[in-house]
Amino acid sequence: MSAGLDIALIQTRTPATPEAGLAHVEPLIREAAAGGAKFILTPEVSNFVEQRRDKKGQWVTDEDQDGVILGLRRLAAELGVWILIGSAVVRSGAAGDDRAANRSLLIDAGGGLVGRYDKLHVFDVDLANGETYRESATIRPGDGATVADTPWGRLGMSVCYDVRFPHLYRRLAKAGAAMISVPAAFTVPTGEAHWETLLRARAIETGAFVLAPAQGGLHEDGRKTWGRSIVVGPWGEVIAKLDHDEPAVLRATLDLSAVEKARASVPALKHDREFAGPL
User: Fold this and answer.
1) What are the residue boundaries of the CN hydrolase domain, all occurrences included (predicted)?
2) Are 30 and 271 in contact (CB under 8 A)?
3) Cβ atoms of 184 and 212 closer than 8 Å
4) Is 143 exposed, middle or buried (0-12, 13-18, 19+ CB in 10 A)?
């Protein structure tokens, strides 16, 4: 693994259609690349944000037909950068299940797709402020974890609500992930209470860099997201963060040798023990 990786997290307020979604995110990615970023990450649901089921279905298409995915593949090749599409809502391809996939996609500097991950844990919750989310009604959860190779080290892929399930992150770290992506569209109440704490905990537990680009602000469908994109180092230190929910580019430089140092200092990934119970 080489040191000194310049990255950028793109914080967005993605519109309700793929065409508008691409027009929204492309200038931010170009800005990031112009600033020297070699690896650029976008948030969850980067192709469109639309909860209303009567409108959402018209935009869900196959991965190889989605305008944002195709546009960002072309952009990666043009700019010579790696791009993680934090996620896009696309057809899952599962027989007998018409729900979509919430799919994270890793694009190399030639525009090729080199990593895919379907969000494992779907967000079904009734919040104290009256907000209700039933992601499982329209999103088919994935059934496997993904670690992808990059020129700088291995990337473990996750999405949003996954961050509350630490056993997934331990598996990613034990599979060699030096960086873990957590693209998100966090709600405001849960974001304010838990966002940074959860991300720092996952970094400490795994000894990995945690890269968390986020949606932020009031979306066209009435949803509000927390923003506050953040980069956390393998010792749990905050390297860079935004303190708002406006669209923006967050830059950071990762010294990837810090991963080995953190894991040598606290070698917990080597200390798992089998145990019985509880019953």
Assistant:
1) 5-256
2) no
3) yes
4) exposed
Give me the sign of the Cα torsion angle 3, 103, 148, 72: negative
The pTM (predicted TM-score) of the whole model is 0.95
Give 175-196 pLDDT, tens digit per residue. 999 999 999 999 999 999 999 9
Could you give the angle at the alpha carbon of 54 between the alpha carbons of 53 and 59, nearest 5°?
Answer: 80
Dig out the tokens for 244 from the structure. 């708002």
Could you give the residue ranges of the DSSP H alpha helices within the chain? 18-34, 53-56, 67-79, 166-174, 188-206, 257-265
* Count helices and strands in the chain by DSSP H and E runs: 6, 16
What residues are annotated to the active site?
44, 119, 160
Place of tokens 């690896």: 39
Interior/surface letters 217-242, b for 16+ CB within 10 angstroms, e for the rest? bebbeebbbbbbbbbbbbebeebbbb
Domain ranges, ordered by start, for the chain = 5-269
Q: Which CATH class is domain 5-269?
A: alpha beta
pLDDT tens column, 124-153? 888 788 778 888 989 999 999 999 999 999
Q: Is beta strand 100-107 parallel, antiparallel or unpaired with respect to 5-11?
A: unpaired
